[in-house]
Amino acid sequence: MVAPSLIPRKPGDRVKINHRDAVSLARLLRAGELTAVWVPDERQEAMRDLVRARSAAVETLRATDSR
């Protein structure tokens, strides 16, 4: 999987044409210019959500203590 933000683009190349995009992606893949991204599974995403919630709670406690 490739993140759209990591696909190299030329300035002004904003028009989306499926065939042209597919050919462009194939060329970039063949040239090794695409960076793969990792997509977490449900369990890993749930753990991330838990860690984010804990971090937010800790930050709220710190903000409350400093008032």
From TrEMBL:
Highest taxon listed in the record's lineage: Bacteria
Name listed for the protein in its UniProt record: Transposase
